[in-house]
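Q: Protein A?
A:
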Amino acid sequence: MNRAFLHAHQLTQSQLLDAIKEVTEWLDENGATATTEDFEEQKEKLSSVAQPITSKLYSGSAGGADDDEPLDHDEL
């Protein structure tokens, strides 16, 4: 695999994990008292990070060796 692709994959994975961690921490601290608007705001923040990553993943799968399998899929 291309080094640039692997580096970009690691960066996007790191960005997504950081965003998930941030929202999870927010939920732990504020979940019991948050309003619907607060939850929607956090959802939008997470979506703004996740959506471009998932779009790249799906658009980049065209012409791949095995389009039906996710990149990090492990068999159970």
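Q: Protein B?
A:
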Amino acid sequence: MLEAIRDALSIEMDADDRVVLLGQDIGKFGGIFRATDGLLAKFGDKRVIDMPLAEGAIIGSALGLALSGLRPVAEIQFLGFAQQAFHQIAQQVARMRHRSRGRFAASMVIRAPFGGGVRTPELHSDAIESQFAQAQGLKVIAPSSPYDAKGMLLSAIRDPDPVLFCEPLHGYRFIKGEVPSAAYVIDIGKANVVREGSDVTLIAWSAAVDLAMRAADVLSAESISAHVIDIRSLLPLDVDGLVVAAERTGRCVVIHEASLTAGFGAEIVATISRDAFYSLQAPIERVTAPDAPYPLAAAERMFIPGIESVVAAARRTLEVQ
């Protein structure tokens, strides 16, 4: 996935001189995860810009560049650190089109990795994507595969509105897949069915999709057919695709790495309960992290959702007749 993201950045910088990158350590160092490795040498320091350790300054600078006609891609080293720039993202970036009555659009992307599975220190793995879902005017997307990461990042850079592009830390090097070398785009706001099934629907995004697929393999060994859908985009949410997936089985499990209370899974449950209520055969289950601060690395596996908890939740939906 890391290579797919770097490839997308390089392709779009080649194609459009307006695309510039900015963030902490993205130039000479190539990014903390090497997502921008080699791009400084290829495009120069006018287009790959090292910024200070100040998330608000990074996002505020990107907004200024966007208003000047460029298409900045700002990197925040970890999504948890984006809270230091929340005032810029929610109050400035997301509202710019509305505030200017359509005269100005903040055509920019904010890249930020998040999620567990790599034993990070405090704040680094926090899955706080739902906090940005109320920043009206901002699109929030979270790809789960290298193919989607490349296609959706290209779409995000070309989008006229600001996009928060959430990247799974676990997926950077542990999730692999075939990716075309040429440019291609994937529509933002379109969910993806990654596995067909008939007994229970597993709903996830980002790294939780890989977890759902592995849980589906376990369920298959028990003769339980799991339908797996990757919503890919939190805002805009593919409500029609979500409803179709829920209606397919009438039994749903929503999986995410954020805490239970006010996680985006609650929005999904509310949407399905409203638009697919008469198709439901059992209460919707949620498999999430607990309502607690992210733990030290040694306790991470007890905190983030695991295969066993997903399988157990799917079984519970099938127990209801």
